[in-house]
Hints:
By secondary structure, the chain is an alpha/beta fold. Helices cover 35% and strands 23% of the residues. It is built from 10 helices and 15 strands. The protein has an 8-stranded parallel beta sheet, sandwiched between helices. The protein is globular and about 55 Å long.
Amino acid sequence: MKYMSEVLSSQLISHDLAFNAVSAAFIAASEQAKLFPVVIAEGYAENSVFSLKSANTAELVGWKAGSYWPGNIAKNIPCHASTIFLLDQDTGRLDAVIEGSTVNAYRTAAADAVAVSVLAREDANCLAIFGTGHQAFYECVAVCRVRDIRIVLVVGRSDSKAQAMVEKLADVGINAQVRGAEEACRAADIIITATTARAALFSAAWVQAGTHISAMGVDTKGKQELPVSLFYKADLYCDFTSQSVVIGEFQHGDKEMVINKLTMIGEVLSGCAQGRVNNTDITIFDSSGVAVQDLFVGKYLLNAALDAGHAIEC
């Protein structure tokens, strides 16, 4: 069996590796992958939750376990943790365990960057980010690698946290400013939502023609980041249709209307469907997070470890 520690996976992961792995995963998801119902469970500690997301492809089979333990704040350790499990396709025996909490941040941001690379206008240069947490930072960095972003407008519930995000982005060479929700939306070429919200974060009327929106925060029933009225005048994309309409952002729209309009991003990447048609389109990408992303990222990490000569057999 192969084992990769959090320390090693954090050393090997990069935005390029994640982008390439997630791109391949999205194509597989649209062509031949099977995804299974997400299991969401609770720990004994108050408000602690964990989920299991599983999938298979012709090459890969396995699952990711993700956990959220809010009590970890008091212990000065991260609240989120992720581990990827890969099975041997021929025997069903456990083939690899990859600790991937940092990896998960790259993987999620890569999904955003892949969507932006084919759906946002080529000349997009103003990014509005709703969210000031750990994941929001990674989203900004990943998207700035695929578009020439001149400025990031940070929208947060806390002014101090929004300002801290501005300073963190400045540390990696990204120009950012704190803005209110309406001002940010009206100025943005790209809007990213990376929150735990349960109601729309902005008004559809604030979104300008030609804007691309990546909704990254909704991954369970009840969460919501976007105004439903926006679905009717936008082109809709997702990572996996059946999951998006159940636990993703599109759970809130009219199901028949959404399904008729919805395109999986892998179909765009493979050339089977259109992405952005013109510079006045509004496009929405819903990322509820699919297990096939984790399987491919795990495979790419194992290959990177072997190429670098790291011992991972145990």
